[in-house]
């Protein structure tokens, strides 16, 4: 039985799903009329979104498919909304139409998916450019040869600071 390895961008996708889900859940919740969360709701939201991000980054099926990304983000928005409404001292939806809140969370899901897919598409070219820019230049065939290790020195290492302050002269000899 072969085990599928995660995509090279699996960690990127998982982290991005967790971070953008939390950020856009708060934004969509506020735009939909829910208001800003207090510290307890924010803590619960961050824990829930970290779990969603870890699941997306760790499960190979979720780290490869566009539809799985959209489903994971929708689940993350649902979990985010639930975390924002379950926290102690959470707000109550006073006269806020459920349709506006649902539309704000759906729009946040689509925006998150577009941002993450764009980042994944640009990941390969950007890392190739960075590798090319940060690698030392190869000047010729001779410089590409592996260097031979230097044989160890038989002399004990001497620090310049200690050598300047130490004298090898002993006390005078009286005969």
Automatic annotation (TrEMBL):
<feature type="transmembrane region" description="Helical">
    <location>
        <begin position="67"/>
        <end position="86"/>
    </location>
</feature>
<feature type="transmembrane region" description="Helical">
    <location>
        <begin position="40"/>
        <end position="62"/>
    </location>
</feature>
<protein>
    <recommendedName>
        <fullName>MFS transporter</fullName>
    </recommendedName>
</protein>
<keyword id="KW-1133">Transmembrane helix</keyword>
<keyword id="KW-0812">Transmembrane</keyword>
<feature type="transmembrane region" description="Helical">
    <location>
        <begin position="98"/>
        <end position="117"/>
    </location>
</feature>
<keyword id="KW-0472">Membrane</keyword>
